[in-house]
Every structure is written in C-alpha cells, then in structure tokens.
Amino acid sequence: MDGTLVESEEYWIEVEVELARADGGHWTAADGISLIGSAIPYSASVLRTQGGVLGTDQQIAERLVQGVARRMRERGVIWRPGAREFLESVHAAGVPLALVTMSYRDLAETVAEALPAGTFQTIVAGDAVKHGKPHPEPYLTAAARIGVDTSQCIGIEDSPTGLASVEAAGARAIGIPCLVEIPAAEGRSRVRSLTELSLEQLAAIADGQVIDRL
C-alpha cells in the first residue's frame, strides 16, 4: 500500500522525525528510508533504541499510526501514478485482489474505502499477522484467504523488504521504486510505475516471464 498504491511513505518519515524531535531524540529522513516496508512494531523498536523515542514499542507504534492517520485525513489519499486505474482494470477482469500492508487495518481501510466497493477481496494488515515483512506470512495469509496457492499470485512492492516477503512466499514479484532503489534479482520484474503494467503483461509475468524496465 504505502509507496506502491498511495503516496504515504513520506507521511511515515515525517511522523518518525516529529516523534524523535518531540522526545529529544534524533532521527533523519535517511533513517526513515531504512525502515520502508518494515513491520510497524519493528520500526517502533528501532525508533526507541536508535532514535530516542520514548515509550514502549506498542505506545510508539500507536503514536506512529495516529500521526499518519491524521495526515491522511488532512491531506487525503494521494494515489501513486496509475494506481487507481490499475486496480480498477484488474478488478474488472475478475482477478482477485488482496491488499497486503504493514500499515494497521484502520489505515488500510481508509485507502480501500476510497476505491469502489469490493475492489479488494481481503486486507492483510500489519496488526493481523504475527510476522511482518520480510517474513512470508503476510502473503501466505493473503493467498490462503483468496483460495489460491502463492505460486499463482503476483505481489507488487516498492521496497526490497516487501519484495523479500513476496519471494519468500513463492509468488511472482514486481518491484516499483518509490523512495528506495529496487535491485535486480532472479525472477523479479521491475517497472517504473503502475502505468506500465497491462493485464497482458501481468499474465505473462504470472506465466514466468520477467519484465525489467529499470
């Protein structure tokens, strides 16, 4: 979701810097980039141990989510190029869609509610799994909920952490860079934005073809 479908990675980094500053710690945008794609509890622990943010990991996680939610309410959901159109075309073709995100469910539902009802068949959020990305659990859970094997799935991510989760689950992976570079890897497709992905290209990737435009 964050950085792949919506422009929210910068919200997370803003909040991280804000929390550290408020608690007398130190955190930079570069530090925030290193956490992109990570589970929120892990990010909270790093902010506590390395950024000087005060409180328990759970308290810090709650402050993070509240800060990002406030920005989404104030600034609205800002879509990545081609994201809405891509989701609409895939949904219209009858392909099941799962939203797999390390954001918590309240934030994920805010994004899902900005789309036509039923666009996502299921949402797997960060507060609904024991192991977050890069562990395969989020994608294994999503595939199980839509009733297919992960070998029949494609996961689209904007970070190496997210892609590691996709690939560990046994799904085809497509990387679309946002704030961090996406390195090449065997079997991994890469494109510059969702505007470059057609249904025909998705079918080809599902069949094992690799598309690399970076």
Let me know the largest β-sheet: 3 strands, parallel
User: How would you describe the oligomerization state of the chains in this entry?
Assistant: single chain
**CATH-scheme architecture of the largest domain:** 3-Layer(aba) Sandwich
Run of helices and strands: HHHHHEHEHEHEEH
How many strand segments?
A: 5
State the CATH superfamily name of the largest domain. HAD superfamily/HAD-like
Structural class by secondary-structure content: mainly alpha
Average pLDDT number: 96
Spans of at least 5 consecutive residues whose pLDDT stays below 50 are: none
Which percent bin holds the helix content? 40-55%
How far apart, in Å, are the first and last alpha carbons? 21 Å
CA radius of gyration is: 17 Å
User: Strand portion, in percent?
Assistant: 5-15%
> Could you give the order of strands across the largest sheet?
3-4-5
**Count of alpha/pi helices:** 9
CATH topology of the largest domain: Rossmann fold
**What would you call the shape?**
globular
Name of the CATH first level of the largest domain: Alpha Beta
What is the total number of structural domains? 2
Q: What features would you describe in this structure?
A:
The two termini are 21 Å apart. Helix 6 links the parallel strand 1 and strand 2 (122-124). Helix 1 packs across helix 4 (57-75) and helix 3 crosses helix 4 (57-75). The chain folds into two domains: 9-75, DNA polymerase, domain 1 (Orthogonal Bundle), CATH 1.10.150; 83-206, HAD superfamily/HAD-like (Rossmann fold, 3-Layer(aba) Sandwich), CATH 3.40.50. With 214 residues, the chain is mainly alpha-helical. The chain has helices at 9-22, 29-33, 40-51, 57-75, 83-92, 105-112, 137-146, 160-168, 199-206, and strands spanning 98-100, 122-124, 154-157, 172-175, 188-190. Strands 3-4-5 form a three-stranded parallel sheet. The chain has a two-stranded parallel sheet with strand order 1-2. It is 44% helix and 8% strand. The model has no long low-confidence stretch (mean pLDDT 96). The chain contains nine helices and five strands.
